[in-house]
Amino acid sequence: MTSNSVTFSLNGVDRTVDVPGAETLLDTLRDRLNLRGSKEGCLEGECGACTVLVDDRPIDACIYPTAACGGRRVRTVEGLSDGGVPSLLQRAMVRSGSIQCGFCTPGFVVAVTALLERESNPSRADIADAVNGNICRCTGYAQIIEAVQAVVADSLAAGTGQEVEA
Amino acid sequence: MQSPVRFHSATTFEEVVDALDELGSEARLIAGGTDVMIQLARGELSPQVLLHIERVPGLGTVAAGEGGLHLGALVTHAMVRSDPATCALAALADAARQVGGWQTQAIGTVVGNIVNASPAADLTPGLLVHDAMVHLSRRGSERTLPLDQFVKGRRETAREPQELVTGITIAPTPEHSGEAFVKVGRRKAMEVSIVAVATRLVVDPSTGTIADARVAVGAVSPIPHRAPASEQLLIGQRPTADLFAAAGRAALEGADPIDDVRASRRYRLAVLPRAVAQALSRSSDHVDAARSVA
Questions:
Q1: What pLDDT, on a 0 to 100 scale, did the predictor assign at position A160?
Q2: B contact set with A (CB within 8 A)
Q3: Interface contact flag, A45 B41, Cβ < 8 Å
Q4: Has keyword Transferase (chain B) (predicted)?
Q5: What tens digit of pLDDT does each residue of A95-107 get?
Q6: Which partner from A53, A126, B206, B223 sits 20 to 30 angstroms from B78, CA to CA?
Q7: Per-residue pLDDT tens for B243-265?
Q8: How far is A129 from B98, CA to CA, in rounded Å?
Q9: Which of B4, B33, B102 sits opposite A133 (nearest CB)?
Q10: CB B52 within 8 A of CB B82
Q11: Is-contact B157 B231, C-beta < 8 A?
């Protein structure tokens, strides 16, 4: 038997897939589960466009086997907005012009979400470090980092973590 | 067409050693998979079974114990960055900080980095300056090897197909020591090293001279290695910029880099002495900083 039946939580809902042993989580998400927000960029764990959270850790889905995800909690960019309403981070990125071609954007949103979940007041260096595995060739990163700083400043001002209304 | 691979996620240590005993080289061990999955996709590996060990309990901790600090096989680069015990060891922590990006550091393991045995493995130089020992287990027996005997060549180690590397132990750090890691790449993040250097100096506070010196270099030969000519030059001397420059030049002995897409052999040979001198200078600064705190 060379396929694996794998059940994991995907954006809060249990899903079961039957996958070949070496199938990547990215292929499973995009081609079996129709979630195309995670992008296929380099396919070598270099560009971060496919970043998803597995048990709250950011990983490159293009080089992570689906079969290793059994019983784990997978979150993709689709699960980070609230019923289609963009998160504070997503809105801040739109406002600050963090997006040009948009291909890398989902990966940045996921990586920064992981940062903000563990660090309520990250420094500029912390933010730059958190996106060091995400490559953007349009914006030059400045607007992306500014967007994160804006979300952090708003959240701290409101004193309510990420729940503040932008 | 790639032949299908069976994926087996082990949940106990016994399950792993039993499967290795049965399958030998037909099994490929996988933890975070950041090297294995890429090599599979490129067709460089074709195992029958991917033997997944991320769920095996007891392998994921950093613990101080007899003989030094033990890093289990599942200790990730992110853990080396954040654990207070490894954080204090700049030759390791700064290397872990510069492996790939966050996504690689979050699940990529230190043991995976040495077992993969890339000439450019970033953790290996720092582990060499700390006299790392590699622990291997198979069904019914275990053994321990010094890291410099474990890595045998490019992508080649002393691990038998039936063996699991369970962890590494690094020796206690001497007093009055300072260490550093210097990586040369074209950009700061997501780089495979062009040259990597780890150094550690112990300075005798009564004489102000170097009592012990460790220099290890990576990406300039098939195997990351210590540079004994540099070390011998340093021991017994006072730390100065001229001495560090000379020790840097001495590191060229034993360096035999390749031309590749990242850098030419000529560039690597030009930058190596400077990278060694810089690492030594930072190590020396760290000794001074530690003394002024004490």
A1: 57
A2: 2, 4-7, 9, 30, 32-34, 37-38, 40-41, 49-50, 52, 54, 78, 100-104, 106-107, 188-190
A3: no
A4: no
A5: 999 999 999 999 9
A6: B223
A7: 999 999 999 999 999 888 889 99
A8: 10
A9: B102
A10: no
A11: no
pLDDT digit string, tens, across residues A109-152:
999 999 999 999 999 999 999 999 999 999 889 999 999 999 99
Q: Kindly state the tokens that stand for A71.
A: 């019983």
Q: One-letter amino acid identity for B291?
A: R
Q: Which of B132, B9, B150 is nearest to A66 (CA)?
A: B9
The residue written with tokens 């560090």 in the block is B244
H runs (alpha helix) in B201-264: 228-234, 241-250
CB distance B102 to A129 below 8 Å: yes
Q: Which domains does chain B have, with CATH numbers?
A: 6-52 (3.30.43), 62-170 (3.30.465.10), 177-293 (3.30.390.50)
SS3 of chain A: helix, strand, coil, percent, to 5: 40, 20, 40
Contacts of B100 in chain A (CB under 8 A): 45, 133
- Whole-angstrom CA distances from B165 to B6, B13, B21, B34, B169 are 21, 11, 14, 17, 12
For residue B248, the one-letter residue type is G
Q: Which two tokens stand for residue A54?
A: 């597995």
CB contact (8 A) between residue B7 and residue A64:
no
Three-state secondary-structure class, residue A31: helix
Q: In this predicted model, what pLDDT tens digit does every residue of B105-118 receive, in sequence order?
A: 999 999 999 999 99
Q: Which residues of A touch B189 (CB under 8 A)?
A: 132-133
Name the maximum alpha-carbon separation found in chain A.
56
Interface of A with B in 9-38 (CB under 8 A): 20-22, 24
Q: What angle (nearest 5°) sits at the alpha carbon of residue A76, between those of residues A72 and A77?
A: 160
Write down all domains in chain A, each with its CATH number in brackets.
Answer: 3-79 (3.10.20.30), 88-163 (1.10.150.120)
Using alpha carbons, list the distances in angstroms from residue A128 to B101, B154, B188, B276. 11, 33, 11, 27
Q: C-alpha angle with apex B206: B231 to B244, nearest 5 degrees?
A: 30
